[in-house]
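Please fill in the sequence for the structure shown.

STRUCTURE ENCODING:
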């Protein structure tokens, strides 16, 4: 029988109220609280699935599980970031992420009202390529890939893939020009 965690990590509908998932979120929250109090890179290394050399995270940081976050080398996550890692979040090398950015992998049923009422959800991964800059307050939605060397303007809501080497801004985020 497939577990709710297996459903979550493979993009199927799952119940986040499952005891295993609740316990994992509570354990992650303890590490998040410890990090936010101490700014300890060692805590982030225990929390994240992987983090590259020279990367750092500023507090106040929030996430669901931690182990589904993979951050490359020499990348920076600024103040007040929220990473809802119900699916994998991959952040490349040399990425700069501004304050109050949200990377949101969770999805809820749109057409199936009863499934939503019963608190089912699913998740889709987010991938941020190398040398990307996300301005302050950017929201990246589930299932989005942002190509390497792209710049996303402050306050943008990224609802679909962004190609490499472009400047994209707005809500919804649209390519303005090539870089």
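FILLED IN BY: designer on duty
SEQUENCE:
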């Amino acid at each position: 029988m497939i577990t709710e965690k297996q459903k979550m990590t493979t993009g199927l509908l799952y119940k986040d109220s499952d005891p295993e998932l609740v316990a994992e979120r509570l354990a992650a929250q303890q590490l998040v609280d410890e990090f936010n109090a101490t700014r300890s890179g060692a805590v982030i290394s225990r929390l994240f699935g992987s983090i590259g050399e020279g990367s750092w995270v500023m507090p106040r940081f929030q996430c669901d599980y931690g182990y589904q976050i993979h951050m490359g080398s020499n990348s920076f996550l600024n103040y007040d970031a929220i990473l809802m890692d119900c699916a994998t979040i991959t952040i490349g090398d040399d990425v700069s992420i501004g304050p109050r950015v949200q990377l949101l992998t969770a999805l809820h049923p749109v057409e199936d009202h009863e499934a939503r009422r019963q608190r089912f959800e699913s998740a889709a991964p987010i991938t941020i390529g190398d040398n990307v800059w996300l301005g302050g307050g950017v929201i990246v939605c589930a299932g989005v890939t942002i190509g390497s060397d792209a710049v996303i303007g402050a306050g943008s809501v990224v609802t679909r893939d962004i190609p490499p080497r472009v400047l994209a801004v707005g809500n919804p985020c649209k390519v303005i020009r090539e870089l």
